[in-house]
């Protein structure tokens, strides 16, 4: 734990997503994984340690977060894991030149409602480019008024809620934090909606 700023703290959502990856570790070798908004990169590091081909990304305008990604790789003996700057909602050469992906990871990227559409725009772009891919995301429920349902419909995406107990992440020590406030964590798998409306 470096400090409590967004991308330099291990948030409870990252621990829960890392647990999901660990439970599914046998399916990860050879999978191509991109972590968006990676920060300290706990889920991406776990995926890489389990044999996935991982690329870590955070906002190109957030050098401290990108440095945090690189530091996590070095501390975990993963110097070969690429770290790139990707800013949500922005089409950049880095986004356009990304290799194919199977899984996109994002822990607590749904933090600020003003970013929700930019995040889903980027995810939609990646899923259109990789139609069989999935976006595995965990987030902290901060307000009952914050929802991405309308944006999922707008971008023709579907979501499946993954119960935390189904992968032993409902334990107090996993989804809790020393930070004040409520720490209810949810997990979703987002993919392209089928043309029949599902």
UniProtKB/TrEMBL annotation:
Database matches in InterPro entries: Methyltransf_16, SAM-dependent_MTases_sf
Keyword Transferase in record: yes
GO MF annotations, alphabetized: methyltransferase activity
Keywords from the named record: Methyltransferase, S-adenosyl-L-methionine, Transferase
GO cellular component, one term: nucleus
Domain of life: Eukaryota
Keyword Ligase: no
GO biological process: methylation
Pfam families per the UniProt record, alphabetical: Methyltransf_16
Family: Belongs to the methyltransferase superfamily. METTL23 family.
Protein name (record): MET23 protein
Originating species: Ibidorhyncha struthersii
Gene that produces this protein: Mettl23
